[in-house]
C-alpha cells in the first residue's frame, strides 16, 4: 500500500539536495533517509537548480507549496521583481498598492480570471518573507510622574463642567502629496525613507466629550487658492487662514481662540479647553468664556 506523500519545506528539500551532492546516493537511499517517496526524491534532484535559486533569494524557507499553474507563477514572479525594485528605491508599499500592481501585471499577461484578494496578498507576503513595518518614528522622553500627577488632578477640574463643555483642540498636518510612512518589506530589512514631500495643510480640530465637533480651521500657503476664485471664503465649511509655510503660529491660534470665544459668548456658555504645550499655543490670550488647561511637556500621546 502506498504511503501518503509528505510535503517538504524548502529547507528540507535543500537538505535532500545537499545529501545527494555528498555521495550521489540512490533514489531509494534518499527516500528512506528523509521518509519520502522515490518519485518525490527524484523530482527534488531534477529541480535542484530552481530550488537552490529560491534558497538564495529571500523566500520563506518553511514554505511547502508554490504555484502549480504557470499563470500564477508568472504573476507572482513579476510582482516580486517589482517589489524588490521599489524597495531598493525606498518607495513605501501598502497592501492596496501591491494588490493593484498584481492586478495590473495579470491584465498585461492576459490572465483575466486573476483576483488579487486579501488571501493572495497574505500568501504572497508569506512566500517572500515580507512584513509590514513603520519606516521611521521618534518620541521624546516623558516623565511618568508628570503624567500621573496631571491625570490625578483631572477629575476635580472636570467636576463643574458638563461633557458638552469639555473640549480638546489640536492641530494636525495634512501632507497631501506624501507617501505612506509604513511599507511592506523583507524581514530584517532596514526601512529608511527617502525625501518626503513637504506640500501640506495644517488643520485645527476641536471637539467636546459629547462628540460635537467645532468648525475646522485650515491653514494653507495662499490667501486665496485658484480653486477659491469667485467663492466667498466666509461660506466655506472651514475657517481658512494662510502663511508662507502653512504652519500654525501663535497669532493664528489666537485668532482661532478669539473666534471660538465670541461664539461661546453668544451661546452664553463657558467651557474647559485642553491644549498641548506647543510654542504656537498662546499663554497670554484674554478669553472670557474659555478656560485653557495646558498638558505637561511631551505627554500629549499619554494624556489625550
TrEMBL record:
By its UniProt entry, which InterPro entries does this protein fall under? CenT-Element_Derived, DDE_SF_endonuclease_dom, Homeodomain-like_sf, HTH_CenpB_DNA-bd_dom, HTH_Psq
Record-linked SUPFAM superfamilies: Homeodomain-like
What are the subcellular locations of this protein?
Answer: Nucleus
The molecular function GO annotations come to: DNA binding
- Residues covered by the HTH CENPB-type domain: 63-134
Q: Which PROSITE patterns match?
A: HTH_CENPB
Q: Which UniProt keywords apply?
A: DNA-binding, Nucleus
What is any one of the record's Gene Ontology cellular component terms? nucleus
Q: Does the keyword Magnesium apply?
A: no
Indicate yes or no for the key word DNA-binding.
Answer: yes
Identify this protein by name: Tigger transposable element-derived protein 4-like
Species this chain originates from: Sitophilus oryzae (Rice weevil)
